[in-house]
Specification:
3-stranded antiparallel β-sheet; 19% strand; 1,4-alpha-glucan branching enzyme; alpha+beta
């Protein structure tokens, strides 16, 4: 099994598990969880988001804090990184990608967070 095929870890009774880009929310506002690289890339690209990290957060030569840089949002200065670097770090840390496709009102949602199910 490749890292991209690793199952979602942890207990997520409130979330719908997604294993491919062909799967979608059961209803608007539903929290989804995946480790599937193609699903994550498709979600980001639909929103114009780029894989990013916070400069200076590197750890042992790898990206530190993994984020998405959305167009039109200002805030902390982010460094764009390659999808390969983003996913290598994502897989090494055995993270889950928790996200929404749409808000409850049906508008597109940019909500996501990364979760380490092994963290206490």
């Amino acid at each position: 099994m490749s890292p991209a095929d690793r199952p979602v870890q942890g207990e997520h009774q409130y979330q719908q598990h997604v294993t491919s880009p062909d799967e979608h929310e059961e209803r608007p506002g539903r929290s989804l969880v995946t480790t599937d690289h193609e699903t994550i890339m498709n979600w980001a690209r639909e929103r114009g988001a780029e894989p990013a990290t916070v400069p200076g957060s590197e750890y042992e030569g790898r990206p530190g804090r993994l984020l998405m840089d959305f167009p039109g949002y200002s805030g902390e200065s982010l460094e764009h990184i390659s999808w390969d670097d983003w996913f290598r770090t994502f897989d090494e840390r055995k993270l889950n990608f928790i996200y929404q496709e749409h808000k409850k009102d049906g508008a597109q949602s940019n909500f996501f967070r990364l979760e380490n199910p092994d963290a206490a």
